Structures are given as C-alpha cells and as structure tokens.
Amino acid sequence: MQGSFQSVRTDETNPLWETCVAREQALYGRNNDIRSEFERDYTRLLHCEAYRRLKHKTQVFFAPHNDHVCTRMEHVSHVASVASTVAKYLGLNDQLASAIALGHDIGHAPFGHYGEECLNSLLEQKPGKNAPKKFWHERNSLFFADYIETLQDTEGAARHLDLTYAVRDGIVCHCGEIDESGIRPRTNPLDLYTIRRAGSAQPFTWEGCVVKLADKIAYLGRDIEDAREYHILDMGAYRQLREIVASCFGFKTGKTVNTTVLINDLIVDLCSRSSPETGLCFSPENYRFITEIKRFNYENIYSHWRLREFQSYAANIIRTICSTLRRAYPAARTRKIPFALKQFPVLCRTFENWLVKYTQYDEERKHVLKYDGVRTVFDLANEESYDKCIIEYLSGMTDQFAICVYEEIISF
C-alpha cells in the first residue's frame, strides 16, 4: 500500500538515524553543499572509478562487440530504478535505496560470477589459518568502498569514500535467498566485517531490504533477453517458459516474460503485498514464479556449455595474471617491480601504481601523489597480505583490461 512504510522510514525521526548516518571518518565539508547524507554517498559512488569500470564488466554474457547485451553497469541501473520506485511508493527513503543500489556491485570481479568463482578458488588454495578468506563480491564491494576507492578532496588529496553505515550495510547485505515469509531488517547494528558469508545477515534498514529484492527482480528477465539474443534457448526452453507462466498464473494469462513486463508486475505485486507487519514479500503465485524462473535460468542459461567454455577462458586469464604477480613478490618487497615485470609494461605500470597507493612500497612517491590520506591496506612484509593485494587488484579489472594484460603476458 502506498506510504505504508512511512513510520519505519530511515530519516531524522527514526530512532536508529544516528547509527545509520554514522561515518568512520567525517567527510570534508562544503559551506554551500545542499545534499543530504545519502545524496552525498550516492554522488561519491557515482564519481568513483570502480563504478565507472562497471560498464566494461560482464553481467552474464561476455559481449564487448554487442552494444545491446547487459553489462554490470546496466544491471546496477536496473536495480537502482526498481529500488527507487519501490522505496518511493512505500514511503521509504529512496535516496538511501538509490545509494545502496548504485554501490552494491562496485567490488564485483571481471567476467561476471565466473571471475568471482575463480578468485574464490585462488584464495581457497592457500593453506594456513591466517590465509585470506574466501572471495565474495558483496564483501568485496564493502572492502572497495571502505579501503580502495578514493576521491580528491578540495585540496586535491585522495580521500576514502567514508560512506554512511546504512549504505555500507546495504552493500554487503544485498545478496541472499528470499522465502515466502518475506524479509525484514535485523534489529541490531554490527561490525560488517564479522559477516562471514553472503546472505547470512539481513540488511539493517528497510531500504536495504528493498535493494536486496530489487537485485532479484532486475536480472531474471534481462538474462532471458540476452539468452534470446545469442540463441542460447531452444524450442524446448521456450515451451518450458510458457509452462512456467501457465502453472503460476493460468493458461489464459498471455503473460510475456521480458524485462519490462516482469519488472512492472513484480514491483506492483511487492508494493501491494508488503507492510511493516508482514515484511517485504510477494504473493504466493509471484514468489513461485520467481523461484521457477531462477531455476529455468540456471538450467538453460547459466549452465549452458558455451558459458562453461567462456568460464574456462576467463579462469585461465585470471590465474595467469595471478601467478605472474605472485612470482614478483621478492621484487615488490625491494621496490624492484619495474625489473621483475619489464616485459609487461601495462601490467608493470598499473600494478606498481597499485602498490604505491595501498602498501608501503614507496612512501616518498605516495606523498608526491597526495596519497597520504590513503590507508596502507596491504603489508608487503607478509606474503599472505601480498596475495590479498593481488586478488584485490585483479577484482578491480574490467574484462577488456584483464584480456589486454593476459595477452601481454603470453605474447613474445
């Protein structure tokens, strides 16, 4: 119902407001700034380089030469649109929902979830109780927001994003399954780095819960459209789609499965069924429809043999770059990366810049580049920390840049 969540909206009247807008470090101020706290978060994410790179990161299909196939940035735009529409209608804070949605994938790996699986496997291969933890993009998006992404302040110095707690929380908690009983926010704030796996904690705000559902709504129909573009679906798959629609809504519905129809119908259903008492939820038939479409996508799209071949290609690229940089560890400790990677000028230049910014590799250069305010995130005296440094460097790459570096490595 319209406005039904006004009483639990994240604003100054909410008893949790101070927790939601808390920042680990205060932002530099501007006397003429007219933005709210969450609008500042939105624009800081919009201007950061990790967001810009999303336009060259795969959603499902690697398609650098097809302008109409969904990229990670388009997916984020869909999520932001759905989240803003739902939040505004229900009376929630649409500025908060939009900021969470914009930043929810900034730490996603190149090559979609296949790249994520590969980075995860590289971390799993490391022994030792202090080895880097498993890679999951929700946690990595929080890590990028907190430690990697920077913007220039009014003096031209690099400063971290320093987002509000509510936005950071929504980013790391945006994934996870939904069930028929709906979802509602958790009641206690917690250290977000104590969350050990994706989906294990609900968001702290209703707006974060909206983004979590918007993420589901946004990709289901869009992935089917891209599969049609590449003729991934055969006649049996189309027949299966019709059967899903018929079993959920009746044979006479005439319902079409595409992005715009699916998004509209699920938004309307979510808004009409949800309340602070029952939680954010779908009707039984639409919940079943979402479940069946997800199963259809996994069976007919994500598990398709052509995507599995692409996964092998992406994994080889990531592992080759990773092993090349691991061999350069002695050079990283002695500031001799240009000697160790002299055959690979693009990799050498960008990785050394990464080391300057986020490690103790060259403090003098760090000062010259006005990186004094950037935290030293990785310790070059510790090989496990250096491995984590490599993984984060790789996770920030676009598909095309990773391919460029890979070809540089294997070419003679």
Automatic annotation (TrEMBL):
SMART domains: HDc. It comes from the Bacteria. Pfam families: HD. Residues 72-220 form the HD domain. Gene3D superfamilies: Hypothetical protein af1432 (1.10.3210.10). PANTHER family: BIS(5'-NUCLEOSYL)-TETRAPHOSPHATASE, SYMMETRICAL, SLR1885 PROTEIN. This is Metal-dependent phosphohydrolase HD sub domain protein.
